[in-house]
Fold each of these.
Amino acid sequence: MSTGTDVAASAAASAATPGLDEQASNLRMAVLRFSRRLRAERAVDTMSDGQIAVLGWLRLKGPHTLSELAERERVSAPSMNRTVNCLEEWGYITRTPDDTDRRKVNIALSDAGRDVVTETARLRDAWLEAALSEFTPAERVTLAQAAGLLARIADR
Amino acid sequence: MSTGTDVAASAAASAATPGLDEQASNLRMAVLRFSRRLRAERAVDTMSDGQIAVLGWLRLKGPHTLSELAERERVSAPSMNRTVNCLEEWGYITRTPDDTDRRKVNIALSDAGRDVVTETARLRDAWLEAALSEFTPAERVTLAQAAGLLARIADR
DNA sequence: TATTGTTATACTCTATAACTATA
DNA sequence: TATAGTTATAGAGTATAACAATA
């Protein structure tokens, strides 16, 4: 059993009650594909997903150091440094040396950065709203509940 | 209304019956956060997301041409060609010229590929399975239904 | 002439290692 | 000596343009 060779038996069993492994696999594939599609909807085509994520986080939580941003986005410090360099060059963030610890540099959203992250969220949601409008109210309830559940998983 | 400036009124209204805009925003944030967390749980470091996705799709739907795979994964044909080259080099897929249209090449999962995608999915989803196991059966049904709905949106 | 697959080339994002300055 | 940020360099993934084979 469960050797992966007896496809027919596996399919028959899962048709009745999908195992936790298949539920997980289905959910993973669906979410990853959906998020990739969602990410494709951007206000500024020249901005990467990582750059947008940093701007969004700064708007939500205020200024952070480079290390904090790197840890938050789960990338290396040099990688985040490159991201921040671009954002600074475009005028979307500002770098300010910390007063108490001069090794640190506080990275904050500029007015232009605030504008662009707002516009990006608006465009992204416009596409998503159009998609949601084609669902039934019951289906939208399902998605709303699922959103809460996904958030709970992500916070583990 | 709905200008985005009257935050209090908007919040009050959405508390009763969330508008489509807030549903979209909530769903977007939840999915992006979840997918980032999910991506961080990569048990198999030697294979990329794209490679795993192709193997999974071939296992699920059988052989496909290069163009079909590229369209499915929303990448360019050269990019998919590179992905398929790696998978072929590793012995996970086979290329077979089509009999009726000799321009086409059928890409199919090999036995080794079938094994590795099974094992990869198992390792990768271990974290997600653990998370799902803490939900009630009803909540898991909600997530399963939502997965189908998200897939429909992504295919738009 | 259009389509399918492939190669050539370049760009972006990412990582590790090494360097600078502060603590 | 340790930490925060940065620079140098390399690897992986992606894209567009150009090419070969077939329809």
Note: Chain B touches chain A through 53 residues (CB under 8 Å).
Amino acid sequence: MNGEPLTKRRPITIKDVAEKAGVSQMTVSRVLNKQTLVKAATREKVEAAIAALNYQPNLMARGLAGGRSKLIGLAYYNPSPSYLSELLVSALKQCRDLGHHLVIEDLSDIEDALDTSAIVERLRTIHLDALILTPPLSGNAALLQLIEGLGIATVLFGNAGGGGQSSVVFDDAAAAHAMTEHLIAHQHSRIGFVRGPDEHPSSAQRAAGYEKALSEHGLALDEQLVCHGDFTFRSGMAAGEVLLGQTVPPTAIFASNDDMAAGVIAAAHRRGLQVPAQLSVAGFDDTAIAAAIWPPLTTVRQPIAEMAQAAIGLITEVTGEDWDGQPLNRVNDIIRIVERESVGPPA
Amino acid sequence: MNGEPLTKRRPITIKDVAEKAGVSQMTVSRVLNKQTLVKAATREKVEAAIAALNYQPNLMARGLAGGRSKLIGLAYYNPSPSYLSELLVSALKQCRDLGHHLVIEDLSDIEDALDTSAIVERLRTIHLDALILTPPLSGNAALLQLIEGLGIATVLFGNAGGGGQSSVVFDDAAAAHAMTEHLIAHQHSRIGFVRGPDEHPSSAQRAAGYEKALSEHGLALDEQLVCHGDFTFRSGMAAGEVLLGQTVPPTAIFASNDDMAAGVIAAAHRRGLQVPAQLSVAGFDDTAIAAAIWPPLTTVRQPIAEMAQAAIGLITEVTGEDWDGQPLNRVNDIIRIVERESVGPPA
DNA sequence: ATGAAAGCGCTAACAA
DNA sequence: TTGTTAGCGCTTTCAT
């Protein structure tokens, strides 16, 4: 009687499942959301129907009706490619395992960095369950304040922020301290340093770790040996040129990230210097590039993948029913020096 | 400082705009969707109200009611990090300009590569407007067929597929041919080649370009000089070891991507060989790593960023009202050899 | 050129 | 433990 057209395959909805299982939509919804108020026998019937029909809930409808969109935003601003990919790959994997989806927001081109409202406007439309802010956004107080008004759960990545938000951070100062000591242990006393950009709070922390190690070992801080970079290969190369062009150049250079360290090595090679025979170079992060250059780079590992995983985990907690509203903070302080071949004793 | 209140209790809806402008919701909707059936005066009133209220449409509601979610999926499987980041950054930028959002799907861990249905199930829930498939997914016929059943617009990236889908491709064979000729022009006659993995259709095309150039110049194809890699730095290094360990090693090695070329250079350095004095090395893609190693890599540029931009543009066309249903194909055949310092004449 | 009504697929609140 | 009733914010269809 009702000649259902075979050609038009209507997507399976919760209604179809309910009919097939002989229950109401609500019961199906409860099963889907793993609520406990369903009798085991009923649950099984529903699960069978779901499997039989190969039903997939509609994310949009869920987001509209419920509030949870299962969408997590990940916003970044001018990241280092290697840092970004490691972060993404890990976050994505964890999202899949937890049934979330990641919406990437590249905020790099926002003209006026102070007009953070442009960022916020863009985020508002998407109805994110939660948002992950990576450095340097996670260190931008004005932005943080604006986002708070959005009322979406936020997790800061790499910077702790004011303390009001949940965060996943790394002990940058301790790591830089450890690497500096590593260099000192290799008999270096003139150790150059390439700072990161000021808008990254971790830049100052890494510099602090470097300075602390120096002074602890009775080494004077020579401002001549400190250059500024912006985390790019190019800036590392420029810093290397400057440092190596001095009358008494350093015997070792510690760059605040791997990309810049690779740049320092390139600058050394360009001057015909052997690494590590004539110059030791150390990096920071242990991203993919560290093992993809010659000589392979000695660096401090920043566990980006683990931190990304933790960030997604935090979001699950923070968006969960039984969250008490207190910000959750995870600080990763497992420091590991990855010894490869770019550090040795001075000539 | 902006005077906007930071906390908005109730989000602004289309209804608020309609009231403020003194029109119906429908008129506002028409203005939002740039329909032509609105009188200029009315449109202006509505636009003023939108601006005054700082209204942002709700993506979820739009997706549910309409069908267009403004969400574009980008799926990948075990990509090279540098390839991925260039692709992402460019696609993201174009998305922002066109008002779309990118939902990244990392399919790398799907256990059974043949159980493509697992991929499809995951994609079904999200209600994507369109999907971009990157290599090697774009070359997976079984997957393509399954996705066709989903009825969402698909754009193949890097591989043309069977011809039924829209695509953005690069002329890999021509590029490999050009690079091989570049090496021959530098007097090389024993040119090693590192192939890409077989699941990437472009691997065969790049090999074909290499072989064609060889035979056109009267050079015999020596199977001993061809190694297989999987696009990773590590595999390039292994291939380099093999090639360089032969009794009569090649004087130049052409790797099918930059990561592998970097590996070949590392293998050469490990053996104490100077590049390019004792061995020339050429890469493919011109990704970030090419300029971040020493010596900087001579490579063929694959315009990933432009292609990504084109892909998003194609999606806008293909999901637009006035699309005739015919697959659109863009093939990028602007080949450019980026000469840096890893290629020179043989010793 | 504009408006009214009816859902899209789902979940929150309340009943039973 | 389960079902019923309303919407979520928007776009469709059909009026006007």
Note: Residues 23-27, 30, 37-39, 42, 61, 63-67 of chain A lie near DNA strand D (CB under 10 Å from a C1').
